[in-house]
Structures are given as structure tokens and as C-alpha cells.
Amino acid sequence: MHWEKAGSNEAKVTEDSDDCRVQARLSQLPPPTVASPSGSVTTRVLTREDERALHDTENFQKCMRDKGYSAKR
After folding, report:
1. SS (H, E, C) the chain
2. What is the residue range of 13's domain?
3. Running along the chain, 73 residues long, what does each successive block of 10 average in pLDDT?
């Protein structure tokens, strides 16, 4: 994924990306959730590492959008 923002150069994108990565990593991970078992739905239980990775990704992307960037593939 590539982040774009009008008027930004590569150095600014890198700086903002680094800042957002740090902010995402330092953000508090929510407590683990335990879903009640259901016979009708098959779910995959995330490990705490998977939860952290998902949490970091979501927070990073939100940070970049908040800085005015849009994601391009």
C-alpha cells in the first residue's frame, strides 16, 4: 500500500509514516475479548500477537488518514 497526499514529497510521507507507526505501536491494546461459542458460526480465535498486529495496522491507517493521506495500491 502506498500513501499519497497532495503537496507531499517522499521525505514527508516517510516522516509521517514513521510517526504513525510509533503512535500505533504505543497505543493501548484493548483487553482480550472472549466470544461465546456458537454452533452456527465458525470463528478463528486471534492470538494476542495477531490482535496487536491488527490493532497496529488499524491505528496506523487511521493516523495516516487523519494527516490527510489516502491509500493507493
Report:
1. CEEECCCCCHHHHHHHHHHHHHHHHHCCCCCCCCCCCCCCCCCCCCCHHHHHHHHHHHHHHHHHHHCCCEEEC
2. 2-27+47-72
3. 93 97 91 63 73 94 98 88
